[in-house]
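Researcher: Go.
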Amino acid sequence: MADPAPDVSVVVVTYNGMPWIERCLDSLQGTGAEVIVVDHGSTDETVETVGRFPGVRLIEQETKGLGGGSNAGMRVARGRYFFLLNSDAWLTEGALERLVAFADGHPEAAVVGPRLLNPDGSLQRSVRGFPTPWRLATEYFFLRKVAPGSRALNAFYAGGFDHDEVRECEFVMGAAMLVRRSAADAVGLFDEDFFMFSEETDWCFRFREAGWKVLFYPGAEVVHVGGATTKQNWGRNYREQIRSHLRFLAKHHGLREAERARRLLLWALRLRAIVFRGDRRRRYREGARFLASGDVRTLLS
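Model: Structure:
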């Protein structure tokens, strides 16, 4: 007789996940969850480390981005919930059980996001607002610095959002998110055109468009280092982050809106390249050259 399906299938995508992957997998021991690791060609000791954890299923494949890796894990998962967890994040005691209990009590929620903490125990703000040209302007022209707690000037980072109470939100960071399988079956998995960045933004948008809710639940906490993988090649990843904004706008609001955002971002990065020095100047110059190299249709092709 086959084993009964678990409540939760945890999917972790890795690429050179040392040293955090060991702590990540340690935190899942004893939870009763099915654990699936999808590795995208790590050259450090990630694969060997994963192999030391009994019962963890390892899938090795060519890199397909974070969304594509998560999809590979979810396609073989058996749980009634998917818990997507970054390789540089780990659960606090009892967090997964509390997340599941909360989701069971809120069947309208497709996604439940836990409270994220930095390694020093401070809050890591994890609720975000969907990109629009205005919201991108408040970020890339530093307007949000004027009033970081204001929704008018900081809706992109959910200014004023209280991370101490249960609330509905637009989307939560994909570092740790519980997803209802039946909701994913209804709207589909990640759009793999989002290679890295905004894959969770697009997914939460689709859930909400289909009538589901995205809820923030502070009763479960996850520690997240942040940037452990993306900083390994931040120049290329920064361009991919910019491209992801344009892809989201083109997909959900049309090419004209995305083209407005491209021009806005181009001038913002040119301004930043004047103001800043060193590595940041080089990054902004490269980003501006990318945005100036073609229209949105060309940049997304």
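Model: The first strand starts at residue 8 and ends at 14.
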